[in-house]
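Fold Annotation — chain and its backbone
Encoding — discrete vocabulary of local shapes
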Amino acid sequence: MPLVNQEAERIFRGMKSKNSSRFKDLYGKRDKEVMYATANKLAQKKQTKQKTWKSGMGFKEENQKLSYKDFIDLCEGNPTTRMLSKSKTQQTGNISADRGTDEKKNRASRKALEKDLKKKGIGYKKGVGEYKYSSGEGTGREVSYQTSPGKGMSKRRFGKVMRRLGRKHGQESVITKDKDKPARLHDTESKKPGKSMNVGKSKPGKNPSGYGETSGTKVRKGKLGKTNKPAYHYG
């Protein structure tokens, strides 16, 4: 992708020298593509003229100022990107309340899970996840919750609460992840669960193996969204 002008080139050089590792972590092999696109958008936004009506004076052209917020909105405005970034820098978890394909029952289950999360002081962000059935019957989709520990909650306590809620809401497993460490998959279905499983670090895009991934796709009125793109996964 070519840079549109000298201003875009200047912005690109700045991102490359100061934030190249951050773009690499967030976007993987697409890092340069995203940097080019971001530089072009920022350069074009800076050059855009905003016309405002002045009573008795006609139109007046004013240059729009480029702010740090503009950069964040363009670079990290995607909710999936924010979830991916959070999973790399903070303690998080992943849980769902969906079971089967009865959407009416699942909506009720989601409300119950949200009530329990709030009661425990655990923060959450809803999205859409996709996974392979363990029985080999294809893939399923669900409303997925990226969770974060409440104020003063220890890592140990957070993990214990997540496992208990997974068991209470009929889930086969839940995931916990500590900052830049690999995520851990916890069995919440077996009466005597074994040790947690290492499922890898957070990575952008859909899972190459076809196993679970999640996204920040908006969940409106508690309904399961129609897509989980873009997505991030552990691997």
The chain has two domains: 6-77, 87-234. The radius of gyration is 21 Å.
